[in-house]
């Protein structure tokens, strides 16, 4: 179970990496504070979504 969720999370975060990087280039000021905080929030929310999906499959 844990191995599966970690793999999915890594795949999603890796897929988001380039997009966030491009956004940072466009607005360097926001990349430092807003960019990082938004990235963390989105990652946390996606991790929660992944856990919920795996829980439903387990049932």
Task: Indicate the topology.
Layout: H1 2-26, H2 28-58
Helix pairs in contact: 1-2
Q: Major beta sheet, specifics?
A: none
Output the radius of gyration.
14 Å
**Count of helical regions:** 2
SSE order: HH
N-to-C span? 12 Å
Mean pLDDT: 57
Parts with pLDDT < 50 across at least 5 consecutive residues: 13-27
> Using DSSP, what is the number of strands?
0
| Overall form | rod-shaped
**Fraction of helical residues:** over 70%
Return the domain count: 1
Tell me the structural class. mainly alpha
What percentage of the residues does DSSP assign to strands (E)?
under 5%
Biased composition (Basic and acidic residues): 48-59
Region (Disordered): 1-59
Kindly list the characteristics that best describe this protein.
95% helix; 59 residues; 2 helices; mainly alpha
Tell me what you see in this structure.
- By secondary structure, the chain is mainly α.
- The protein has two helices and no strands.
- It has helices at 2-26, 28-58.
- α1 (2-26) runs antiparallel to α2 (28-58).
- It is rod-shaped.
- The two termini are 12 Å apart.
- Residues 48-59 have a biased composition (Basic and acidic residues).
Write a brief caption for the model.
By secondary structure, the chain is an all-alpha fold. Helix content is 95%, strand content 0%.
């Amino acid at each position: 179970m844990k191995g599966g969720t970690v793999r999915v999370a890594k795949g999603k975060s890796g897929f988001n990496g380039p997009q966030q990087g491009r956004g940072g280039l466009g607005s360097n000021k926001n990349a430092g504070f807003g960019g990082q905080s938004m990235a963390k929030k989105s990652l946390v929310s996606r991790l929660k979504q992944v856990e919920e999906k795996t829980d439903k499959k387990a049932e």
